[in-house]
Design a protein that fits this description.
about 290 residues
Length: about 290
Amino acid sequence: MPATDSKRSLHRAESVDDSVLEILPEHGFPKLGLKELWRARHLFQFFVWRDIKIRYAQTVLGILWVLLQPMATMVIFALVFGRLAGIPSDGVPYPAFVLVGLVAWTFFSSAVVAATNSLVEQANVIGKVYFPRLFVPLAPIASGLLDAGIAVTLMVPVLAILKLVPSLGPLLLLPLLFLVAAGAAAGVGAGLAALNLRYRDFRYLVPFLVQGWMFASPVVYPTSLVPEGYRLLYALNPMVGVIDGCRWAILGTPAPGIALVGISAASAAVLLLIGCFYFRWAERTMVDVG
């Protein structure tokens, strides 16, 4: 090979080496990496859109499922808890009372379960190319917000049959309430996703956790049944403020109070931070265990 060619080949090899970016795990206390998440936001949008398309691909009823699922459960709960058990419903028809609670709860529970299983389902991707892994459990939660919006929209005509027409003003607060639920689901889902990737038993434990959490939330009964001295402690469950707030906004039930909603929102924020920080700490070994 001529000398000039050898020099040219060596120069190209050095250029390639200079362009290689070596990504190493962080040491010490984990960081959320918000700047990195913002720079890759378009990838997150792709993940969300992909989840939406997969969810409704080759379905006959399509978006109607987001309301049909809680309505089917509502019929069962209305018979068991409304008629047989005679549980009160804050002055509104029990079917409407439990339907609003189920719409909010279905979003939260579905988001937690989907986020928990997301890393295992995408294990072949996270081991091949680097990207912010936190996008994987957060994407099904963001796509679930669309389902929740559709469910609330479809629920309004159903409630009109029961002569329950919500006021526009309180309805404007619904997005904030669902964001609180999304924050709680993101924290719990991200933490469980990291645990589930390492210990696959968690995919079997989560349904029991979610079912128990539902009965610890005011889905089938009103918060007024909880003794007044324990209600603020009860509000540490973030879904208490969300469900009570949704019923107030849609059905006009008694307002839950700023303190109760504030405690639930603060609890959701704490869960979000704990779950995301634990996820970033566990992310250091995800490629090895995935």
